[in-house]
Amino acid sequence: MSDVLTRLAQIISEVVGPDFLLDVEITRETTFSDDLGLESIEFVALADKLRAHYDVDLVGFLADMDIDEIMAMSVGRLADHIEMAAARG
Amino acid sequence: MSRYLFVVPPLTGHINPTVSVGAELMSRGHAVAWVGHPGTLAPLLPAGALVFPALDDEVERRIQDARVQWLGLRGMAVLKFFWEEFLIPLGHAMVPGVTEAVSAFSPDVVVADQQALAGPLVASRLGIPWVTSASTPAELVRPLQTLPKVESWVVELLSSFAGSDIRFSPLLVLVFTSPSLVPGAFPPHYVFTGPALAGRPGGSFPWEWLTSGRRRVLVSLGTLNGAAGERFFGEVVSAVASLDVQVVMVAPPGAVSAPPNVLVASSVPQLDLMPHLDAVVSHGGHNTVCEALAHGLPLVVAPIRDDQPIIADQVVAAGAGIRLRYARVRADEIRTALLDVLDSPSYAAAARRVRDSFQAAGGAVTAADHLEAVVA
C-alpha cells in the first residue's frame, strides 16, 4: 500500500467509524458509492479532511465526472488524484 | 366552476398534498378528479372522490418490486435507478391512462405531481394548461449543481421523454413549504403555500396509552423505508429505553422488541398525533417534517436517500432540529440528539417560527386561490 492509500484508509475509517469497517478491508478497488455507502454528511466530513490533509478539493474532483464515473469512484482513484495533485505542487 | 385533474404517482407522500388542495377546490364548487393507481389513492382520498386509473395493480406491483430492489442500492446507484428504472418508466406507463382521463374528464387545468411525468407530457400534447405540484422542494435548490454532468444527464432523460425539462410548469409551481425552510429567489409563478394538511382522513390510535406528564416522541421512517429500517429502529429503542419519555414508533410488527415506554404500530394517524407530541425523529420525508414543524415540534432527522438529506439540511439551517447519519448512527448519538431537541428551547422556538411561516403561507387555501387564477 502506498503512503497515501494507507492514510486515506485511516481517514475513511475516521469518517465512517472504525467499528463499521470490521468486515470491510479498504483496498484500491473499494468504491465510495456501493462498498462504503457514504452518506452525504459523511461525504462532507471526508471532503473537509481531504482539504485539511492534502489541500485537495473533493467536490471539484467529482465535478467533471458523469454518473457512472461517480458510481465507480474508488479509493485507489482518489489516492492517485491526491498523489498527482501533490506532484503538481 | 372549473375542472381540475390531479396526476399523481403511487406514493403516499406525493398524493397527500393534492388531497387537501382537492378538498379545498371541491368546497368552492369546482369539479376535481385524480388519475393514478386506484388502490393507492382509495384510502387517502375522501369517500366518493372521482378516480381514473392510470396504473393497474400488476404494473403497480412491478413498480413496488423495483422499489424494493432500489432500497438495496447505495450511493449514486440510487439516483441512477430512480430516474432510469422508476420515474421514466412510471411516466411511460401512466401516459395512456392519463390521456383517457383527460378525454373523459375534460379538465381546465392538469395539476401534475413532479414525479408524475405523464401529466405535463399529456397536457402539453392536448393543449391543456398544466401546473406543477412540488410535494418536495428538493428540485428547486438544484441538488446536483456541483455535479454538472449528472445534472445535464437528468435534463437529457426528461428531454427524451417529453421534449423538454418538465419538472416546472411555466404557469404555476405549487411548493408545499415556506421560504423559512427554502430561502432564495424564485420566479414569481413559484408559490410557497406551506404544507396542505387539512381535509385528510384520520385513523384509530390507542390514545389511553399516552400518559400525562411525560414527554412524547414520534419515530417514523415514512411509508417507503420502514421495512428496511430494522437496524435504525433497534438503535432508537436502545437510545430511549432508559429515558423518561413515551415513544410511538411507526415500524413493521416484530421489527424491534419494545420496552414498556415504546409503542410500536405499523401505522398511526400521524396528523392527529402531532398535537400530543414534544419531538419527532424522522428520516426527513418532506411530509413528516412539515407536519412536525406545522405543530411547532423540533426534529431529529436521519436522512436515508433521495431528497431527504436536503430536507434535513433545511431543518438544521432553520434551527429546528439536529441531523444524524442513518446507516451508521449509534444509540448514544440518537439519545444525545433527542435530549438536546427536547431540552434546549431554541429548537422548539425555531420550529414554532417555521409553524408561523406555514400559517402565513395559507396552505391549501392559497394553493386553491392560485389554481383558480390559472383558469381566470
UniProtKB/TrEMBL annotation, chain A:
PROSITE patterns xrefs: CARRIER, PHOSPHOPANTETHEINE
Record domain Carrier: where: 1-86
Keyword RNA-binding (UniProt): no
Key words, A-Z: Phosphopantetheine, Phosphoprotein
Pfam families in alphabetical order: PP-binding
Signal sequence residues: none
InterPro entries xrefs: ACP-like_sf, PP-bd_ACP, Ppantetheine_attach_site
Superkingdom of origin: Bacteria
Protein name listed in UniProt: Acyl carrier protein
UniProtKB/TrEMBL annotation, chain B:
CDD domains membership: GT1_Gtf-like
InterPro entries: EryCIII-like_C, Glycosyltransferase_28, MIP_CS, UDP_glucos_trans
UniProt superkingdom: Bacteria
GO molecular function: hexosyltransferase activity; UDP-glycosyltransferase activity
SUPFAM superfamilies recorded: UDP-Glycosyltransferase/glycogen phosphorylase
Keyword vocabulary terms for this entry: Transferase
Record-linked PANTHER family: STEROL 3-BETA-GLUCOSYLTRANSFERASE (PTHR48050), STEROL 3-BETA-GLUCOSYLTRANSFERASE UGT80A2 (PTHR48050:SF13)
Name of the protein in question: Glycosyltransferase
